[in-house]
What does this fold into?
Amino acid sequence: MSRTEAIDRYLQEHLEAYLQETIRLCAQPSVSATGEGVLECAQLVEQILQQHGFETWKIEGYGNPVVVGRAAGKSERTLLFYNHYDVQPPEPLELWDSPPFAPQIREGKLFARGAKDDKGEFMARLAAVEAVRAAHGGELPCGVLFVVEGNEEVGSPGIARFVQDHLDLLKCDGAIWEEGGIDFEERPGTSLGRRGILALELEVETLSRDAHSGNAHILPSAAWRMVRVLAALKDENERILIPGFYDHVRPVSEQDLELLRNLPDLEAYLRQSFGVRGFVNNLSGFELRKAVFNPTCNIQGITTGYQGPGTKTVIPARAKAKLDFRLVPDQDPTDILQKLRAHLDAEGFTDVQITHADYMFPARSDPQHPLVELAARTAQEVYQKPYQRIPLTGGSSPVYAFAGPLNIPVIDAGVGYGITNRTHAPNENIRIQDFHNAARHIARILDGFAGIF
Amino acid sequence: MSRTEAIDRYLQEHLEAYLQETIRLCAQPSVSATGEGVLECAQLVEQILQQHGFETWKIEGYGNPVVVGRAAGKSERTLLFYNHYDVQPPEPLELWDSPPFAPQIREGKLFARGAKDDKGEFMARLAAVEAVRAAHGGELPCGVLFVVEGNEEVGSPGIARFVQDHLDLLKCDGAIWEEGGIDFEERPGTSLGRRGILALELEVETLSRDAHSGNAHILPSAAWRMVRVLAALKDENERILIPGFYDHVRPVSEQDLELLRNLPDLEAYLRQSFGVRGFVNNLSGFELRKAVFNPTCNIQGITTGYQGPGTKTVIPARAKAKLDFRLVPDQDPTDILQKLRAHLDAEGFTDVQITHADYMFPARSDPQHPLVELAARTAQEVYQKPYQRIPLTGGSSPVYAFAGPLNIPVIDAGVGYGITNRTHAPNENIRIQDFHNAARHIARILDGFAGIF
It folds into this structure.
């Protein structure tokens, strides 16, 4: 029996046990937004890691505790798994078919808050570790590190500092990010880059209180001022008007274009899914795919004046706008924040406050790194489909906090299935078959990891 | 004893009786926003008019009943009083020192919801009518008409049609509007014009649901589209960009400028009252006063996207903005509405909906009309200060619904006092002395009215 066969047999035989362990973990609430059950869950995660042969640390000082597990292997090479034990709030409860923290298996799926995001992912990885350890006669072929944090669903505010403070403990040669799996057409794949983000609020006050709109010829309106501010940030062709904004944008490489060409076409899917008549700048085809390399300035929301039913003849005294800028390699969100302030000042908007600024840096991994090749080869084995290499995804994540300081490639592999996971929503679930396949894929990566260097 | 002395003596002797009648009327709730007590109040007003010798009509079909009272006089000339019996909701109740519908006199003031707006005004006029009738030996020197409506606090939606439908019944030679009195420095005066208004909502939808902002490079944002729409309505110098918007703006006359020059300077007051650093377009001095002749485009409020605490990385699918345009003579709100639609279409905003459009026309009265001269002469007698003639006020009212179809001048005289009435707010009140003076002033106008033609 080959080692791969041994791994698969182990996983087949122990699948039920790992599902039961996942159920136990999902039954423990851990809502970081409210604090419910978070400390108990950190404790439970540490216990589970210990039960699976990991040396553990529960590290305080970065928000909710960060649980670290380390297991040595035959090789010095170490693979890091980033996961999180916190979950999104389960509300609205009335839309769940079974209670969010009473996990239930039905129709080949496990339903629970956190089943997918991120407790199922974590447990599939532990299953993979055990399978590989068994197939290697009780000793792992490479070192394994788990970083399981408790603030991911509230934006991981402490994780970058945590990594900086623990570079020795976290020394490793590659990482698998919190999630992965297959898309809505069952294709496996990985993101090889995430955009950064600079989120902030703009606030302006023109009057000490709302005034009657019969005075609109003389009293300055915060609503109009905010419109002017926003119009000064981006032109009608989506070009961001902050001087120097594009200075550090890395040109799109021929390799990136090639990766984009190999990706499936999402245009029809997006058009249908969001009822879109026309895309931004009337983009279509390959240009639409390439647009992910454009940084963006998004308005999350605007609040000003009267928003109730009917009419209220007021001049708004205050206006707020929440914005997020998605940044591409090698833009620096702290640099962009300074340039934004300078731009507002130069345009005469010195009275406009920037508050609540928060950010993540962009990150890229080398598409040709041997870890990517290994993940692709093993994904083909498990899923019988090519592993999609997405050069850059539109969202943001704390990948940068690990990739940069630890100088490692970061890839995705996991239990996800693009159609039905209902992540962050009622009836969150995973398919048992995806849990099984994720463990098989990750075990193969662990099995081959030491050999790629 | 002169007729004026007889009038003043009558009012002095009967002041207490009219205050008691005002208290009785204010004790009857009549909240048009909720319907509370409205029909009972219409009944009560009709009864009061009958008790004071008026023939009455309670006219249905225009919202809450319109109560009309008519009393003939020696002359065919007729003066119309426009008033309303409905009041604003009394909430928040906890901020009242005495219950809103349990009128209370203390410290020389009458406190009640409606004491000022508009029941005290109505009763001061009835007192004036009685005083004049008594001084003229039991017969009025001119005809008197009361129009007391019940929808003023919800925008008088039926009043223009009501007037159009009852031109014969309402035939008259001049009108005193619902309110009047003295300003914060105890100066009497009148508005001689009101701006019109076109209020509406703009709505736009770019997606069938909010999307993750990681897609902002491809999915169109309703928030950004609304910013573009608004920016296309007005330039940074307050010039409204709708083609033809200014076509029917009547030039400011030399007479208007002269009236403006005679008005007190409100700049310091406004600056302090609203904490204003700079006025619109950095106006100051005489230019600031003159700006009331500029029509405006005001944003009442904007609603789009996420407005709660913290950050939410969404692209808003929908955006709404409530606007009001204040229009000057001779702009026509129905014409402006058509031009706005045409402008949006021409600018490519065919997807932007205009909803909830509602309007009033602007109105002007001739500053030299003998009724204005009469009111000024008698105001000087009563208040010992010149009667301010304000050529145009910034707000809007249904004055136009009477002034145009009946072809009459419309002036203000009443019980108001700019500092303490707390109209629409808790502890609404009038000063007894202002009630008394309003009756004296209005009685003098009634006394002289037939003689000015």
In short: The longest helix of chain B spans residues 3-26. Chain B touches chain A through 73 residues (CB under 8 Å). DSSP finds twelve helices and 21 strands in chain B.
